Structures are given as structure tokens and as C-alpha cells.
Amino acid sequence: MELSPADAVAVLERTPAALQALLEGLADSWLLANEGPDTFSPRDVIGHLIHGEETDWVPRMRIILDHGEAVPFTPFDRFAFRTASVGHSTSALLERFAALRGSWRASIARRSGLGASTSRSWIGRNRQPHTSSLLAHLSPCLPTREGVESCR
Predict the structure, then answer these.
(1) Do 50 and 83 meet the contact criterion of CB atoms below 8 Å apart?
(2) Of the four, 39, 50, 71, 123, which is 20 to 30 A from 134 by CA?
(3) How many structural domains comprise the chain?
(4) What confidence tier does 105 reach under pLDDT thresholds 50, 70, 90?
(5) Residue 29 lies inside a defined structural domain of this protein
(6) Predicted local distance difference test score (pLDDT) of residue 45
(7) If residue 144 lies in a helix (H) or strand (E), which one and from where to where?
(8) Does position 19 have pLDDT exceeding 80, yes or no?
(9) What is the mean pLDDT of residues 127-150?
């Protein structure tokens, strides 16, 4: 799948609303379902995306802006969200993710000195692999004729 920068940004910007529409108010039987160890439930996907916003892709963008390719990225623990999500409702997690995702473009534009449209294009080019990963996470969360598939 070939994504343009504008396509990537459009998906990234819509993700919080899409998750809200899909998951808000659903029963725990939907939200907590998974396929076994090391797989994600729909609620886990929200926690994983929050953790990624806070510790992975935004910090990586800062490294790129500040150091180019000279500084290696910190490895990402894809399961670290599990302890951070404990005690938070699904609604609270959805709100947190929306707030984090809503602030990323302005943050990168400020740090990079780029204007809004240039910043949008730069983020799109540098987020395309993450956008494909996001789509892979979301597709199993959608209902099928047979019922809900859990998120992998």
C-alpha cells in the first residue's frame, strides 16, 4: 500500500475519533477480548497507542529534528502500556489518546520551525511506516460477519 504524506496525516488525525466511535460504551466482553498471550484487545490497542505517543514516535521525531540520524532510537517496549493503563477507564484512555494525538502536529511544528503545511507534509513522510502499523492494529478490531475479532 503506497501512502502519500497527506494520506498518512489524514489517517493519524482521524484515529482518535475512529477509536471513539468504534469503542466508546462497548461492553468489556468486546473491549477486553484477545486471542491469547501477547495479543492485544481493543482496549490494549488504546493503551499501546498512548504509550507510543508518549515514549516512541514523538520522542523519535524530536531526535530526528535535533540530531538527524546521529542518535539511535531508544527501543520501544510494546507491552509497557499494560501497567500504565491499569485503573483507567476506557473512556479516560480514549480521551488521553485524543489529547496526545491532537497536540503532535503543533509540537513538531514548534520544534522544527516549520510552518503548519510544511510540518504536516514532513510528519506525513516520517510517519508513513507508523500509519501502516496503525492500520494493521485497527483492522482486527472491526466487527466481521462472524463477530468481533480481537486486536493482535
Answers:
(1) no
(2) 71
(3) 1
(4) low
(5) no
(6) 92
(7) strand 143-144
(8) yes
(9) 49
Q: Which residue has the cell 497507542?
A: 49
- The 3-state DSSP composition of the chain as helix, strand, coil percent (nearest 5) reads 70, 5, 30
Which three cell numbers, joined as nine digits, stand for 8? 498518512
What contacts 24+ positions apart, CB below 8 Å, involve 28-37? Answer: 30/148, 31/90, 33/148, 33/150, 34/150, 34/151, 35/150, 35/152
Domain that holds residue 112: 5-23+39-142
Q: Rounded to whole angstroms, how far apart are CA atoms 135 and 117?
A: 24
The C-alpha cell of 58 is what? 514523538
Question: Is residue 31, in this structure, part of any structural domain at all?
Answer: no
CATH number, position 92: 1.20.120.450
- For residues 3 and 70, the model is more confident at 70
pTM here is: 0.69
Between 60 and 75, the higher pLDDT residue: 75
Of residues 130 and 51, the one with the higher pLDDT is 51
Q: Are 3 and 131 in contact (CB under 8 A)?
A: yes
* 67 in a structural domain: yes
d(CA 32, CA 7): 30
In a domain, 18, yes or no: yes
